[in-house]
Specification:
heterotrimer, A mainly beta (107), B mainly alpha (267), C alpha+beta (147), A: 107 residues, Immunoglobulin-like, 8 strands, 53% strand, elongated, B: 267 residues, mainly alpha, 2 domains, two-stranded antiparallel ribbon, 7 strands, 40% helix, 7% strand
C-alpha cells in the first residue's frame, strides 16, 4: 500500500475554512518514458482523487500523466459539523487507496 | 542530441576552468564554514519552499515509511525491531547521522549510515540486509537522518576515517571519464557559475538522502555521485564500492560544520 | 548494470523514442471539447507559478478563482491545459460549495518552456480562462544510469 500523508487541522470552528494538503506516493509513470530497452514503459498513473466530508464530495480531480510523481493536491474545505473526511485515490492497474481523517468541530 | 550536448558541455567546462588546482573546502586551509553554501541556496524559491515545508516535501513519504519500519520487526528476523534497542528515534538517533561515514570495528572498515542500518538488521535483528538504494533502506536512512536535522555535520576524527577522506579528496580532484573532468573542477572552481542554464552548486553532502526532482524520488549520496560520474561519461562504480565510501568520507569533511538539512529537495 | 558502451549505444535509440509534443491546435481542441465549445472569457483566474523553473518534473502551481463560493455562486470546475507536453490535459478539478476557497495547489510536469492555460467554470455556467508563460531549465548532466 502506498504511503499517503494528509495535513489538516484536527479541530475547527463551524463556518471556518480550513486547508487540506494531500500527498501520496506513486510514480505516475506517464507512458512516454523510455525503459532500458528503449521502448516506452506502459502508463501507470493515479486517475482520480476525491475528498468526501460527512459523505458529501468536496472536491474531485481527474489526473493525467502531466501530474507530477507523488501527487500533491491542496484545497480548502468549509467546515460544518464534526465527522469523517475520506480521501480516495484510484488509478491504472486497479490502484485504489483510501485514507480517513476525523474533523472535530467545536464553536 | 544528447551526445552533442555532452560535447558542448565538455568544451565549456574545459575552457572555462583553470588548471587542476583546487580549493578544498574541508581541509585545514579550506574555506571557513561561513563561506560554504548549501545546495539550497542555488535553488529557486519554489524548490526551497518544497524542502522547507514538511507538509509539501515529497521526501516525507519516505520518512513516514521509515518511521513504520523503525518500529516494525522484520518478518524473517528474531522479532526485534529498531525500537527494541534504540526506543524513541527522536532522542536515540539525535546527532547520529552527522557522524557518518565512520570506522566500524565490527565491520573492520569505514561505513556509511546505510551500512550501519544493515549491520543492525543482519546482526541485532537477525534479518536480511536491505538492498542498496531500495525504498525501505532509503526510508530508514531518511527517517534516522531527519532526527539530526539542523545539527552540524561532525565527521569522526579516527585514523581510518581520516585516511578514507584523504583517498576521497584525491578522487575528488582526479579527472575522470570521456569528458575528462574532476568533481573539483565544477564544484570547487566553478560553483556559482551556470552549466546549461542550471547553477553549479558547491556540491555539499549536507541534505542526503534527497528527493531529487530529476529522479522523481528519494535517493542517496552514492546515487548522486554515480549520476555525476555517468554525466562525465566515466565508468560508474557499483553501490558500496570503496571509492564511493571514500568520497562520502571526504564530502563529510568538506561539509563539516554545515547544518544537516535531510530530507533535502534538489532539482 | 549498464556498461558505458551499452549506454552510448542506447543514446541514439532514446532520441528516436522521444514522444511527439502536443501542439497549440491540440490544446485548443482539447479545451473546446472540455468546455463543450462554450464562449470563454478572460478573467477571474490567477495563476501562481514560478517564471523560471528548476526542473520540469515537479512544478508547483496554484490556481485561484474570484468567486464567493456560496450555494448561489461558486466555482464548479478548474482545469489546466498545456501546449507542449505529449498530451494537452494536465488535471481537471470539480468543486462543490463545500470547497471553502476557490483555490487549488498542485505540482505538475512540464516538458519544456511553454504557455499554460487555466480554465474555470462558475455555477452560472460561464467559462473563464487565463494563460501564463513559463521557462523550464533542464538538468544539466546526462545521467544515463536510472538507479
Amino acid at each position: 500500500m502506498a504511503s499517503a500523508l494528509i495535513h489538516m487541522p484536527s479541530t475547527a470552528k463551524p463556518g471556518e475554512i480550513i486547508e487540506v494538503r494531500a500527498l501520496i506516493a506513486h510514480t505516475m509513470e506517464t507512458g512516454f518514458r523510455p525503459g532500458p530497452d528503449g521502448k516506452p514503459l506502459p502508463r501507470d498513473i493515479i486517475r482520480k482523487f476525491e475528498c468526501r466530508y460527512n459523505g458529501k464530495t468536496v472536491i474531485s480531480a481527474e489526473l493525467h500523466p502531466a501530474m507530477s510523481a507523488n501527487p500533491y493536491i491542496a484545497f480548502y474545505i468549509k467546515v460544518t459539523t464534526s465527522g469523517p473526511l475520506e480521501f480516495t485515490w484510484t488509478g491504472d492497474h486497479g490502484f485504489a487507496q483510501t485514507e480517513q481523517k476525523q474533523l472535530l468541530v467545536q464553536p | 542530441m544528447k551526445t552533442q550536448f555532452a560535447f558542448l558541455l565538455a568544451l565549456i567546462i574545459t575552457h572555462a576552468a583553470s588548471a587542476d588546482s583546487v580549493r578544498p573546502y574541508g581541509s585545514d586551509t579550506g574555506l571557513p564554514v561561513s563561506e560554504r553554501k548549501s545546495g539550497t541556496e542555488y535553488m529557486s524559491p519554489a524548490t526551497q519552499q518544497m524542502q522547507r515545508d514538511d507538509t509539501q516535501n515529497p521526501a516525507m513519504l519516505w520518512v513516514a515509511n521509515g518511521e513504520v519500519l523503525w518500529r516494525t520487526a522484520p518478518l524473517e528476523g528474531n522479532g526485534k525491531s529498531c525500537v527494541t534497542c534504540h526506543t524513541d528515534a527522536k532522542t536515540s538517533m539525535r546527532g547520529a547521522a552527522t557522524k557518518f561515514p565512520r570506522f566500524s570495528k565490527s565491520a573492520g572498515k569505514v561505513i556509511t549510515l546505510s551500512d550501519q542500518i544493515n549491520q543492525c538488521r543482519t546482526g541485532a535483528l537477525q534479518a536480511a540486509a536491505l538492498k542498496a538504494e531500495s525504498a525501505d533502506l532509503l526510508a530508514l536512512e531518511a527517517y534516522i537522518a531527519l532526527q539530526s536535522r539542523g545539527l552540524p555535520l561532525t565527521p569522526p576524527g579516527d585514523e581510518q576515517t581520516k585516511q578514507a577522506a584523504e583517498r576521497g579528496q584525491k578522487l575528488f580532484t582526479t579527472r575522470i571519464g570521456q569528458l575528462n573532468l574532476s568533481c573539483a573542477q565544477c564544484h570547487d572552481n566553478n560553483a556559482g557559475k551556470r552549466l546549461a542554464g542550471a547553477p553549479i552548486p558547491q556540491g555539499h553532502a549536507n541534505a542526503y538522502p534527497i528527493y531529487r526532482l530529476e529522479w522523481q524520488g528519494v535517493g542517496s549520496l552514492q546515487r548522486r555521485l554515480r549520476n555525476c560520474m555517468s554525466g562525465v561519461r566515466a565508468e560508474v562504480p557499483p553501490y558500496g564500492a570503496p571509492d564511493l565510501v571514500d568520497l562520502e568520507a571526504y564530502l563529510a569533511l568538506r561539509a563539516q560544520g554545515m547544518p544537516l538539512e535531510t530530507p533535502g529537495v534538489r532539482p | 548494470m549498464t556498461t558505458r558502451r551499452q549506454l552510448i549505444a542506447a543514446l541514439p535509440l532514446l532520441a528516436l523514442v522521444r514522444p511527439a509534443a502536443a501542439t497549440p491546435e491540440e490544446q485548443k481542441a482539447a479545451i473546446a471539447t472540455y468546455t463543450n465549445n462554450a464562449k470563454i472569457q478572460r478573467g477571474k483566474i490567477t495563476i501562481d507559478i514560478a517564471q523560471l523553473i528548476d526542473n520540469g518534473n515537479a512544478v508547483p502551481i496554484t490556481i485561484r478563482v474570484d468567486s464567493p463560493m456560496t450555494e448561489q455562486s461558486h466555482v464548479t470546475d478548474i482545469a489546466i491545459f498545456n501546449e507542449k507536453n505529449p498530451l494537452p490535459d494536465v488535471v481537471r478539478f470539480k468543486l462543490t460549495p463545500l470547497a471553502g476557497k476557490p483555490e487549488i495547489s498542485t505540482r505538475i510536469r512540464l516538458a519544456t518552456s511553454q504557455t499554460l492555460t487555466a480554465l474555470a467554470r462558475t455555477s452560472d455556467g460561464q467559462w473563464w480562462q487565463q494563460t501564463v508563460d513559463v521557462i523550464v531549465a533542464l538538468a544539466a548532466c546526462v545521467e544515463g544510469e536510472a538507479i
